[in-house]
Write a structure and sequence with these properties.
single chain; about 110 residues; mainly beta; six-stranded antiparallel beta sheet; five-stranded antiparallel beta sheet; about 0% helix; globular
């Protein structure tokens, strides 16, 4: 049975830009994220190896048959980091905000 981290609230009904809480990836190689809420804004997924410097990170959108990869999301949905081996953490940074509220939860697994 694969080991899985608990669900982490990364953004909770956020109404402004900000980095939010990161998911720690030590010992895990895959992560799932669920974005919910009615909002006009942009979530930029970011990853780090050194624990300090974050860069944009492309995730697969599970709602598309082709599982398209994108570094930003503007709609609710479920997204996956297929191979996150070697990453220290991943975060959901709200980089643009106009209205509504944004919630992002995530979990990591082997």
């Amino acid at each position: 049975m694969a080991r899985q981290s608990g669900v982490t609230a990364m953004q909770t009904a956020a109404v402004a830009t900000g980095a939010g809480t990161s998911i720690l990836m030590a010992g895990y190689n895959r992560a799932m994220f669920q974005v919910s809420g009615t909002f006009v804004g942009t979530i930029t997924f970011q990853a780090t190896v050194d624990g300090t410097n974050y860069v944009t990170y492309a995730l697969s959108d599970l709602s598309t048959a082709a599982r398209t990869h994108s570094t930003t999301q503007t709609t609710a949905g479920v997204y996956i980091a297929d191979d996150a081996s070697g990453l220290t953490a991943i975060r959901a940074n709200i980089t643009a905000y106009t209205s509504g509220s944004i919630t992002v939860v995530g979990s990591a697994s082997e």
